[in-house]
Amino acid sequence: MNSLKKLYRDFFGLTEQSEKSQSMFHVSKDDVANMQKMAAAAKQLKTALGEEEIVDEAQLINHMEDYRGGVEYVISDPAQAQATADDIRQWAEKKGFTIIKQILSRSGKVGYFYFRLGENPYKESKKIQGYISQLPIVKHFRFNVRNSKSKQELPPK
């Protein structure tokens, strides 16, 4: 076995790791604790300076069952509100959605679209959620139909 091992090492030029080189990559519990303390301090400094965390995509807090045609979204930069609404409108028309109502708040931070429900609302909600969540300007959004009762309340017994 030893001669086969030597032949293999000579042919491929491989060397075995020694105990010394393996211990070089060892991380102690103290090192981990120090890294966690530094991360917490950096986070406190960031909050103290008032910097927002960078979010690549909108938060996906919506359930597919909640979709009833209405979509509200919040934009991080109100100056681009109209351009974002136009992008959503263009995409929706391209995908075959019918827009019934479109509202943009006075501040420009909140936008609202109300789509006509099609044959498969679950599939539509997946498409809408996928598109709006990937827009970099959108902070978050939710499925919500304005001016309607969300769930009918049962009278108390």
What is the global morphology?
Answer: elongated
Rounded mean pLDDT score: 77
Helix content: 40-55%
Low-confidence stretches: none
SS-based class: alpha+beta
Span between termini: 83 Å
**Assembly state of the chains shown:** single chain
Question: Helical segment tally?
Answer: 5
Q: Please indicate the percent range of residues in DSSP E strands (runs of 2 or more).
A: 15-25%
Widest sheet: strand ordering:
2-3-1-4
- What's the β-strand tally? 4
Main sheet properties? 4 strands, antiparallel
The whole-angstrom Rg is: 27 Å
Helix and strand succession? Answer: HHHEHEEHE
Structure, explained:
This protein has 5 helices and 4 strands. With 157 residues, the chain is an alpha+beta fold. The protein has a 4-stranded antiparallel β-sheet, with helices on one face. It is 42% helix and 15% strand.
Quick structural gist:
By secondary structure, this protein is of the alpha+beta class.
Q: What is the fold's blueprint, element by element?
A:
Blueprint: H1 2-12, H2 19-23, H3 29-49, E1 70-75, H4 81-95, E2 99-104, E3 110-115, H5 121-134, E4 138-143
Describe this protein with a few key phrases.
157 residues; alpha+beta; 5 helices
